Q: What sequence folds into this?
């Protein structure tokens, strides 16, 4: 048995190694155990959620087999193909990202590079207020105020592009206030605060010396952003976009109210559609048997997708931070 | 130092003591729980399920408070499926369900325990529409099926004209309004179409695969709102919500061939003509009888025959007895119809089966 000597630290007296319970004072030991238990508890709960939902959705997977990715969702004839909802989730999340990311990154750059610090703080405060608005309020405002108003705009665009090859397929009729595009817009409003604040923090970590160097070499502001800010922060910004994507995919009540509840796969963005969280919220109350199992299965699929997106996001952000500090 | 330590200890102990006191007070007020003391009248009853019954249950609970102030009743809504699931897992003592008997894929979750069905109310589903200048629309099953499958797309279609001679039907496009959430109303409406229309292809369930051009609304109120705000819209809304939103409803052709408008009387007439099974399950949809409204549906209260305690059994007999007795008088002004008296008598007689 070798005795290992350790260096003296604030709570660790120097001397031969002793087991944990002897080395730390009681308060520290208790805190360590409580913190460990809490962390494990979170992990255990996550695992239990995954296990129990997979168990309850097993009936659906067994009954449908690969038909779970079919296009026909018809409870009356016991067909439960989820492709229409996966498509709806993907499309609305994509629209939300396309609309929100340029705006959010633009706001982040504005706040760090252009606006004087005194004005930046109130603007940050207002943006964060957007994040505080509850999802159901977005949904209610969307269906009662926004959808009827924007339907007129959709109608005029729809009749305008009707017949034109690509645009007609994207923006042509059928047109409805509650549609993929409206859901995408509402989701864009909801993810802007997250993406903005994360991007702003990432951009703020760019060393001033790089920025000043760029200016010294005669760069314009735009060239400085391209040359000094972007290489440092692109990893972090991509990570924050993916986190926003994860949120957009999982958003339930807002999507359920404004997406139109029509399980169809169509390229027409102004047509009503449906997404995974929306259909679960709408149809769970009266579902039983395979129907219920199918809805829980949709939840499992959504869970898996959002975990994958979040893991990729953390990996990119983590990798970028290492790169940045290297 | 001593003072600081005293302050710290106080700050730790006081919130804990306060919480303990509050929790103690809360639990003592729920002390009866569902196993009320001795000869009934006190305790708590919890129910959940059908949203069709929700307004009736809420009003009945309010009025019941003055009859038995010690018995607290709660009804949570949430849908018939949720109610049955809650009853199976003993979360509630009674469930509201628009479907009876229990669907075959749910029977196993009740673990063989006998469930009693108590019908509590009847209600018509209206075919409400918004068409300027038209107020006395007549429709029948096959035409309604064609409208809701988007086979008929304009109001002045010959099939609608054939049923409404002399009415000036405009050429407005038809907008279908239907439910975006799953619902017993959809289930019973589609059941009507299955029974009355050979051309209805979409089956019957709490969620239907509606045509892509249809508009979905959340709840009966959501559908009513779509109809109210869109010229040329038509949809199925239960009677209470249609009346509350001031919508016009169509007269529908019943099994006997007469066109009947939805009302409390026509719904009760439909219920008078049903085949009542021994366990008090039935379907009032597409009922025979000259004055029956063909799209009438019903809702039951489900509970276990054998209760875990005599207190709960007594409380249930008391509350359900009220729903079947004086509670029936509340129904017409809420937009429902009361049970026909023979059905009511049989339901009351079944109360004695509740045992512990």
A:
């Amino acid at each position: 048995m070798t005795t290992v000597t350790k260096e003296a630290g604030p709570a660790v007296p120097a001397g031969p190694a002793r087991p944990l319970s002897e080395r730390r004072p009681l308060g520290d030991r208790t805190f360590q155990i409580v913190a460990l238990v809490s962390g494990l508890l979170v992990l255990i709960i996550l695992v239990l959620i995954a296990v129990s939902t997979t168990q309850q959705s097993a009936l659906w997977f067994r009954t449908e087999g690969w038909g779970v990715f079919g296009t026909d969702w018809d409870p009356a004839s016991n067909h439960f193909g989820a492709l229409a909802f996966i498509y709806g989730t993907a499309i609305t999340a994509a629209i939300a990202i396309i609309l929100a990311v340029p705006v959010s990154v633009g706001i982040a750059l504005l706040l760090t590079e252009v606006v004087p610090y005194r004005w930046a703080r109130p603007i940050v405060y207002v943006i964060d207020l957007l994040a505080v608005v509850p999802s159901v309020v977005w949904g209610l405002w969307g269906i009662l105020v926004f959808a009827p108003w924007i339907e007129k705009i959709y109608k005029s665009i729809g009749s305008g592009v009707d017949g034109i090859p690509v645009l007609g397929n994207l923006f042509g009729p059928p047109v409805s206030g509650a549609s993929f595009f409206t859901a995408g817009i509402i989701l864009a409003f909801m993810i802007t605060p997250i993406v903005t604040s994360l991007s702003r923090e990432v951009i703020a970590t760019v060393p001033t010396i790089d920025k000043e160097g760029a200016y010294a070499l005669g760069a314009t502001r735009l060239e400085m952003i391209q040359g000094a800010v972007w290489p440092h922060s692109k990893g972090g910004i991509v990570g924050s976009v993916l986190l926003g994507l994860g949120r957009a995919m999982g958003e339930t009540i807002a999507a359920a109210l404004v997406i139109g509840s029509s399980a169809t796969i169509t390229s027409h963005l102004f047509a009503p559609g449906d997404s995974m969280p929306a259909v679960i919220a709408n149809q769970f109350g009266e579902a039983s048997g395979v129907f219920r199992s199918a809805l829980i299965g949709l939840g499992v699929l959504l869970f898996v997708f959002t975990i994958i997106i979040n893991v990729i996001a953390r990996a990119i952000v983590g990798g970028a931070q290492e790169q940045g500090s290297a | 130092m001593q003072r600081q330590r005293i302050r710290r200890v106080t700050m730790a102990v006081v919130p804990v003591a306060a919480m303990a006191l509050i929790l103690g007070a809360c639990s003592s007020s729920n002390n009866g729980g569902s196993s009320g003391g001795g000869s009934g009248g006190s305790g708590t009853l919890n129910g959940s399920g059908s949203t069709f019954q929700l307004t009736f249950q809420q009003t009945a609970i309010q009025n019941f408070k003055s009859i038995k102030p010690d018995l607290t009743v709660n009804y949570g809504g949430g849908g018939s499926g949720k109610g049955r699931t809650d009853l199976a897992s003993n979360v509630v003592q009674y469930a509201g369900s628009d479907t009876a008997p229990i669907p075959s894929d749910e029977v196993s979750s009740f673990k063989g325990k006998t469930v009693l069905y108590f019908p509590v109310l009847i209600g018509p589903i209206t075919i409400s529409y918004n068409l300027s200048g038209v107020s006395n629309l007549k429709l029948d099953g096959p035409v309604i099926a064609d409208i809701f499958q988007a086979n008929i797309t304009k109001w002045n279609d010959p099939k609608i004209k054939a049923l409404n001679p002399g009415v000036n039907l405009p050429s407005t496009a038809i907008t279908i309004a239907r439910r975006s959430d799953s619902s017993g109303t959809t289930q019973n409406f589609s059941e009507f179409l299955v029974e009355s229309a050979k051309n209805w292809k979409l089956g019957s369930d709490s969620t239907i695969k509606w045509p892509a051009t249809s508009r979905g609304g959340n709840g009966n109120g959501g559908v009513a709102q779509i109809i109210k705000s869109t010229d040329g819209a038509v949809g199925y809304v239960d009677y209470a919500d249609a009346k509350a939103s001031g919508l016009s409803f169509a007269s529908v052709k019943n099994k006997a061939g007469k066109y009947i408008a939805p009302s409390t009387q026509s719904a009760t007439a439909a219920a008078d003509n049903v085949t009542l099974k021994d366990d008090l399950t039935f379907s009032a949809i597409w009922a025979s009888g000259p004055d029956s409204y063909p799209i009438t549906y019903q809702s039951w209260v489900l509970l276990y025959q054998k209760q875990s305690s005599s207190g709960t059994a007594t409380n249930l007999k008391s509350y359900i007895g009220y729903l079947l007795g004086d509670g029936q008088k509340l129904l017409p002004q809420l937009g429902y119809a009361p049970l026909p008296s023979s059905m009511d008598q049989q339901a009351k007689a079944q109360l004695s089966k509740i045992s512990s």
Remarks:
- The mean pLDDT of chain A is 87.
- The first helix of chain A runs from residue 20 to 23.
- Chain A has twelve helices and four strands.
- The first strand of chain A starts at residue 5 and ends at 6.
